[in-house]
Amino acid sequence: MITRTARRAAVLAVAAVLVSGCSSEDPAQAKEWQRDYCAKLGSWQDLAHATPGSEADGGDGQGVDSPDADDTASAGHAVIDASKRLDRAGLEDGATRILDDTVDAVRGDTGAESRAVSYCDGSGFETLVRAAG
């Protein structure tokens, strides 16, 4: 009898640890992950939307070439990795699936990019991203 009760308690304890491992219980850590995601999203946006004469090249259209495709791809991978961390931690706002929206945004879906930007706005990191489009 005691053995079965102990086994049930152990199973419940393991399940509780697994479930709690899926969400961030540390609000400071959660905010840091959100800030990191939004900073990486903003960096990717700057590269993906850069044009000669834009802010991304110093604003004067001279001296800095348009971003390299490898740099843009690398920034895209970085923001997707950051979105995976948010997804695993359960730090979505309910209106969006941040991982799916990020992947779709990097692939060129402006609607998904807009939702990702809205996520950053709602998280308080709107200054790290720019409007989608």
Explain how this protein is built.
By secondary structure, this protein is an all-alpha fold. 64% of the residues lie in helices and 0% in strands. It is built from five helices and no strands. Helix 2 runs antiparallel to helix 3 and helix 3 packs antiparallel against helix 4. It is globular, with a radius of gyration of 20 Å.
The global form is globular
Separation of the first and last Cα atoms: 64 Å
Helix content: 55-70%
Radius of gyration: 20 Å
What fraction of the residues are assigned to beta strands by DSSP? under 5%
Q: Count up the helices.
A: 5
Poorly predicted runs: 9-23, 56-64
- Largest β sheet strand count, sense and barrel closure: none
Total strands: the figure is: 0
Structural class: mainly alpha
**What is the residue-mean pLDDT, rounded to a whole number?**
79
Helix and strand run: HHHHH
What order do the helices and strands come in, and which of them pair?
Blueprint: H1 2-20, H2 27-48, H3 69-89, H4 98-106, H5 110-123
Summary of the model, kept short:
With 133 residues, the chain is mostly helical.
